[in-house]
Amino acid sequence: MNVLIYLAAVLTTTISFALISILGRLVLRKGKNSIPFRSFVPLFLLVSAIITLSLSFAVTGRISLPGGFYPLVFVMGALYTAASYIVFYSLENEKGGLIGTVSSTQVLFIAFFSSLLFVHSDVIKSSIAVVLMLIGVFLVSANSLRTAKFSKFVFLALFGTLLWVAMWLLFYGTLPSGVPSMLAYGWLSLFAFVACIPAVFLTKQKLVDFSKVMRKSQYSKYILLVSVVNSIGTILYSYTYVLNAVLTPLIVETEVFFVLVLAYFLLKERFKIIQILGALIVVSAVFFFLLV
Hints:
There is one protein chain. It is built from 13 helices and two strands; from the N terminus they run ααααααββααααααα. It is mainly alpha-helical. The two termini are 30 Å apart. The model has no long low-confidence stretch (mean pLDDT 88).
């Protein structure tokens, strides 16, 4: 039964991560019924914080963290906010399948930097895997190799993904013993929303802008859906990673296949052969690192 629970949890995580890019693109792609990413991100962070804190409290029965850990959690929340603005801006301007493929590289980047900082015996293997992965991202960004046209938004999403990686390295590297990871992530989500408040003023967003979005059901339901799948996916990932730190990333990496299939059917996106090849190279790089 424990094996079945684990498999169900990790599969749900994988699909949830894939849906973040698909649903995000569905509501952010420019058009008459779209939401500007400047309005989307604060609402996404707020709803995610409410859901995540509620779920973590329901599961752990705890609400507070050690006092000295709060400043670090706020820093991590700020990194999460910056990454969210960058990645969702990329989603507003580029295909969800391509941005989702780039977002999936978090697993390999975390392994690479962990090997540099902690497990030095894996440095060579992780370096080879990262080089392969970057080649894959380069091909994913290619609109035309012959005319050297590449998507700047794919590389922008890669930068946002690296900010998420920095956040996760700090998260797992500083998490106090005995503190449930899902509880810490709940507070991280709350601080991420707090950290986005200055960005709201800088982008000259007003409360009336957000109320207009939430009053329209076709907008609010997508914000709720993206927030739910993000919260559930991240909480389940922290749970399944503790159960099996090797198998979990391997299964979650199949997110790329779900992203491409969902983008094809739900978003009607079509990809060039070179971009599909790039996505496959990204996946193979992770499998190389985990299996060789």
